[in-house]
């Protein structure tokens, strides 16, 4: 496991991967995220919902908005965001603006970009910058090696037409 990822983190990441699978099975992209309080309580969870045509419906963005509406600044800073795939720049910015705490991801944007290239798939319109390039003060842990193959397979399943 990643150097700073413990069994509790891994349990939360597994829930993110479940949500990602649920998204994929419902025709969305395989991404899922969970917001956990300082006490370890799951506060909110969501998964990708872009199939309706709104490409900003990322779970990490929903988490930022939920946190802004429901948590004090101190509660946000003490909370952890778990996610199956590293935040895109839009979600990283929202995370930074609302002042959420640590981020733990299963797969990095760099890994996803590498997989898409490997499969000959076109990259998205937004640069896959690391979170810390968008939010320099963010505390970020990942990737989680135990989940790499599972997350990769979920993304691969988006492209059934490929050989
Ligand atoms: Zn995003």
Structure description:
The protein is α/β, with parallel strands linked by helices. The protein has helices at 7-25, 59-70, 73-78, 89-98, 109-118, 131-134, 148-156; strands at 32-36, 42-47, 80-85, 103-107, 140-141. The protein has a five-stranded mixed beta sheet with strand order 2-1-3-4-5, sandwiched between helices. A hairpin with a 5-residue loop joins strand 1 (32-36) and strand 2. The mean pLDDT is 96. Residues 58, 60-61, 87-88, 90-91 line the site of zinc ion. Zinc ion binds at residues 58, 60-61, 87-88, 90-91.
Any descriptors?
163 residues, alpha/beta, 7 helices, 43% helix, binds zinc ion
What's the quick description here?
This protein has 163 residues and is α/β, with parallel strands linked by helices. It has 7 helices and 5 strands. A hairpin with a 5-residue loop joins strand 1 and strand 2.
Count helical runs. 7
Structural class: alpha/beta
Helical content stands at: 40-55%
H/E topology pattern: HEEHHEHEHHEH
Low-confidence spans: none
Give the overall average pLDDT. 96
Q: What distance separates the N and C termini?
A: 31 Å
Shape: globular
User: How is the main sheet built?
Assistant: 5 strands, mixed
Strand content: 5-15%
How many individual β-strands? Answer: 5
Instruction: Report the bound ligands by name, code or SMILES.
Output: zinc ion
Strand arrangement, largest sheet? 2-1-3-4-5
Overall radius of gyration: 15 Å
């Amino acid at each position: 496991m990643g150097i700073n990822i413990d069994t509790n983190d891994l349990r939360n990441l597994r829930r993110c991967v479940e949500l990602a699978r649920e998204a994929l099975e419902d025709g969305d992209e395989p991404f899922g995220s969970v917001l956990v309080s300082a006490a370890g309580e799951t506060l909110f969870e969501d998964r990708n919902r872009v199939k309706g045509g709104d490409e900003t419906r990322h779970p990490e963005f929903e988490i930022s908005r939920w946190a802004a509406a429901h948590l004090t600044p101190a509660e946000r800073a003490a909370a952890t965001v778990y996610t199956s795939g590293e935040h895109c720049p839009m979600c990283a910015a929202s995370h930074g603006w609302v002042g959420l705490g640590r981020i733990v991801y299963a797969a990095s944007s760099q890994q996803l970009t590498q997989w898409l290239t490997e499969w000959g798939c076109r990259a998205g319109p937004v640069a896959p910058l690391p979170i810390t390039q968008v939010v320099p003060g963010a505390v970020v842990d990942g990737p989680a090696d135990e989940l790499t193959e599972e997350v990769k397979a979920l993304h691969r399943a988006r492209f059934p037409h490929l050989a």
